User: Fold these one by one.
Assistant:
Number 1:
Amino acid sequence: MNQTVRVRFAPSPTGYLHVGGLRTALYNYLFARKHGGKFVLRIEDTDQSRKVEGAVENLIDTLTWIGLDYDEGPVKDGPFGPYFQSERLSLYRTHVQELLLNGEAYRCFCTAERLEEARRNQLAVKESGAYDRTCRDIPPAESDRRAGEGEQHVVRMKVPLEGEIEFEDVIRGTVIIPTNVLDDQVLIKSDGFPTYHLAVVVDDYRMGITHVIRGEEWLPSTPKHLLLYKYFGWRLPVFAHLPLLLNPDRSKLSKRQGDVAVEDFRRKGYLKEAMVNFAAFLGWNPGDEREVFTMEQLIREFSLERVGKSGAIFNIAKLNWYNQQHLKTKSADELVDLVRPLFEAAGFQAIDCSYLGKIVGLLKERVTTLPEFVSASGYFFHDPDTVDEKGKRKYLTDDVIGHLDTFASRLEAAPDFTPHSIENALRSLSEELHISAGRLIHPTRLAVTGTTAGPGLFELMEALGKETVVRRMKSVKQFV
Ligand code: GLU
């Protein structure tokens, strides 16, 4: 590759970032970073009816959170701006004028009613329902006159009636499409705005985009884009169409089946590292068994050649797994920074940093998402007001309550209170009593935490502190 790589993420601002959009943005970003190129963010906002207030800010915020810094785009700007299509309208008009002059596009004056009628007639004789090309052969002089008189119209591209369009897609290989399945695509709508098809070609060319990496849903549009490149006499970018995202039942991934917005996952406490790792594997793999990747590793290893053709399954269980893997790699300090706001929002104020560090260190192997740190750590902040019912029946027999009392007194009297000293005290007591260590471990946990499962008991007791532990053990009888 001797040309500087320039790629783009070109979302329509619909209000949220779909996981599919994240995957597209990520692959473009990885490709740009790997090849020392530029990653452009372009907002495709030519459909005025779909405008959503705050959508662009939200999108930029989400991309920034996840670590996909763009080099050129809204706010940042750059040498190829503006980066909002709605601010580039004159450019599209200039280029379409060229097509009109060369007879590669034509004005279509058909009214909505006439188009609907033509469509019904076509469908009745089992044709595609595409535009019947009534206006295609209006002589240029007449077309100019009618437009000059202010007659409403759109501009359509002239698709050759015969022949084939062939192109190489990095992921899909050779793609061949006969032109007769293509509609005479509208390029400029009656409101003067371009359609996606015109704008995307003009912008990709004018912004010097070298590789168009986008979802497979755009593959059927690509032949029209190729024709436009040909009409304009422009050099083609490389195309790579990413596989569809599917639900586990292989249906197309949709909002209906649950969360697909990156913001939702962020709100639920998923780590950005996990989202990135998960999105990277929606279509790509490194060719071996490794699954846990950081952004830096992905940049090093990513290649379009290793992106598969077949649909990628979106599996929440897998996302949870990635989240756990990345949680485990975080230091206590990093986790404290991440969870402190969640604890505060849940009403825990002025928490001691080193205490919180111990808590997250103890829980990090046992939780899936960040909010679970909060929900799993109640007993670190207050004495349990109930104990697990089943545990109570199983463990809290009269003799065991007596043993817990003895154990508590010994801990109270001992000079040290470390995991090691606590364990030693427990083991020597169980030997003296001729019972297994387990007969003390489980009831102790129940007394101290109110539950029957959790992190390493001795470490947990140390974190809670001697006074709290002794108090809870001595007062466990209140629950029986
Ligand atoms: N605006 C299109 C979208 O919302 C972009 C398609 C493309 O990348 O060409 O997905």
Number 2:
Amino acid sequence: MTDVTEYEYDLLVIGAGSGGVRAARMAAATGAKVAIAEDRYLGGTCVNVGCVPKKLYSYAAHFHDSFDDAAGFGWQLPGPASFDWATLRDNKISEIKRLNGIYQRLLEGAGVTLFNARARVVDAHTVMLKNDQGDTPVTAHKILLATGGWPWVPDFPGSEHALNSNQIFDLDNFPKRFLVLGGGYIAVEFSSIFNGLGSETHLIYRSELFLKGFDQQVREFTRAEMERKGVNLHFNTNIERIEATETAYNVYLTTGEMLEVDVVLAATGRHANVSDLGLEALGLTLDKQGKIPVNERFETALPSILALGDLTAGPELTPVALAEAMQLVDHHFRDTVPKPLDYSTIPTAVFCHPNIGTVGLSEEAARAKFSDIRVYSTDFRALKHTLSGSHERTLMKLIVDDATDVVVGAHMVGEEAGEVIQGIAIAVRAGLTKADFDRTVGIHPTGAEEFVTLRTLTRR
Ligand code: NDP
């Protein structure tokens, strides 16, 4: 048995992103002696180059539609609205700096020691911290790897001209012509953002339809809505090569077409950020997806070394990392044994325009899982757009297991879909039935009330 007191810390966390910071603070709150090492910004991807700045930019892009919508409600603007990229970018930079400060104060307030250093695990209880002052070994009873993910860009001629999602936020100049490669969350979100901000926007995706894994009807509906808003979608297409000219980038596509653009973003997925962590020397191997295998207690093959968040299997989402951090602390620093996390009904939103919100199973997954399902769906023009003149439509959809009447999936494409689905997610997580939805009185007039007034069966 090892004597815990021989170590400098009870927990040393590597990586001050969403999961790492939450675990550090919560562990410290139990009385544990905790340190966290970070060599970049506090708050990780979500705060600095992910969820938060992305949502701020998405708000900015929505104003485009709002200005167009306003006239039907009697508002007249003094002239055509114009957009200033530098104002948005610099306001965003100030806000993120403010959040970095909040994270620092949260950690300090919780009594967590913050090391501004690059960390490398050298043995089951020792981490080498490296910074300008040199290398310092620090020991801990438990070490938590929480270094998240890092954008990955495929190798093709000229791929060095493509930016990744870490580099897209602070562009010096606004791209009049923007191209994104990929068909996942980041590609659809950033094509909506730059399209809304006024760029000529192209999305290049290698297969038939973007957002693989989402409900097919949701994907098709989103395609139609994004096209209506002016995003140029190129499916069954990839980039062959990118050539830089004096003023732009010529992007040659596999279809033979060439697009001249100002910025190319590669949104082609993220890989676990394990470089230089020292895992190989410890004998810690990655799974087929390049993730660190852990058990229910978030222990790697070396039980004193823990891992969570984007480093491990499971959805790469901030709330998942936060939930895992709470579980991890319960397991290792409290006397509770929590129920294993249920990853099956994790709601998610894609902040494309209009937004997608989804929880539970897609129609296709439900069909594969249950012998009979009922699908209720509606597709309508929101009340607001009767006066705005916008042709934007909203899709709402419930999927029900026929045998039990339980709602196993809820999907929406439309304004504030994430906000709506967050509420619906409680019902789906609770295993409520379609009859429970039907018994719920609507809030009128809202779009969300459609979820409790869907009575007509669309298909089985
Ligand atoms: P995703 O994994 O969602 O999508 C990656 C896309 O790149 C896929 O469409 C994939 O195609 C395509 N791709 C992969 N390899 C290549 C290649 N060699 N050539 C061409 N295309 C390729 O990753 P993202 O980068 O969009 O986002 C990373 C993760 O971050 C997401 O999975 C999500 O978990 C998280 N995230 C969450 C957000 C949210 O909650 N709103 C917002 C942004 C990110 P294919 O589909 O064919 O595999």
